[in-house]
Amino acid sequence: MNYEIVGDNLPAVLIRLDAGEVVTCESGSMSWMDAGIEMKTEGGGVGKMFGRMFTGENLMLNKYVANQAGEIAFASSFPGSIRAIEVTPDKPVIAQKGTFLASVGNVEMSVHFQKKVGGALFGGEGIIMQKFSGSGLVFVEIDGSAVEYDLQPGETKIVDTGYTAVMDASVGYDIVTVKGIKNIVFGGEGLFNTVLTGPGHVILQTMPISGTAMKLYQYMPHPSN
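Above: the chain sequence. Below: its structure as tokens.
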């Protein structure tokens, strides 16, 4: 298997499968493919189906099996970026809801609950996130452009809520209150920030879809009461 990510702010990932190889995606994600690739829809059990629902994904998964070598493509659903992340048994990955695009290999997707109440209630990424474990490649959608950092042990990055897209499970995640009444009232940054603490790799996004929706809402006509 090999892949190529094409496009600018409306990207797609082109995955070239050899005969017998399989790629998994949520239902409705495939954009185009060559003949000789066969689709099989499955749920994987009631628990896993509801887990996907809670993380913003569809209930069912599609598996595309290459009966002969061919190409299959998955396009982003929102202007942004696509990243390929390697998952290994000793390095699971945590991501915001709705990032999953496709995976190759033995990648298991499950629900990840924020352990700290502050992060769960005010973190912007929400109480429920996605966890990818196992062994293989997972392709994720990033809102806007992706900016990546490798945090060293104890190194921190303070992030406005909603801008954290993906992080290694080893990265600490906490929420802190913005200090100072003036900063809270007039700073325009909200009440809370996310603090990420290494070690581990993090991917930040430049255009969270929630913030984009709120900005567009300001310019939409609203019926008068």
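Residues 94 and 131 are 5 Å apart (CA to CA).
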